[in-house]
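FORM 7B: Structural annotation worksheet

SECTION A. Query
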Amino acid sequence: MMTGLDLLYKASSGEEVSVGGKGVIIGGGNSAVDEARTTKRLGAEVSLVYHRTRSEMSADIEEIEQAGKKGFMIYILQNI
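SECTION B. Predicted structure
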């Protein structure tokens, strides 16, 4: 387990990062979406979990829509 910022820092600096086969990102901001996309790119099956509604997510709407197209699940209050 590592923090999301550690993951983003290591991946962007070219450091080899092992994420395992599955990952869960908790949050609803742009950083959480970036972390989920990076984890997916590193080969893991990813789920993004947010404890409020989609309209309360602070991530840009375009980021959220693109995230859904990148092949990972987004679980929000309405569908938990």
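SECTION C. Observations
The longest strand covers residues 22-26. The chain has a mean pLDDT of 87.

SECTION D. Sign-off
Analyst initials: ____
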